[in-house]
Design goal:
With about 25 residues, this protein is mostly helical. It has one helix and no strands. It has one helix at about 5-25. The radius of gyration is 11 Å and the shape is rod-shaped.
């Protein structure tokens, strides 16, 4: 991960992680 893209990656990947976590729970 590049430090410059960390902020964008965090805000973009967070919802995706939540969705994946939701699928894993199901």
């Amino acid at each position: 991960m590049d430090d410059v893209g960390n902020k964008t990656t965090e805000t973009t990947s967070t919802p995706i992680i939540l969705v994946i976590a939701g699928y894993n729970r199901n």
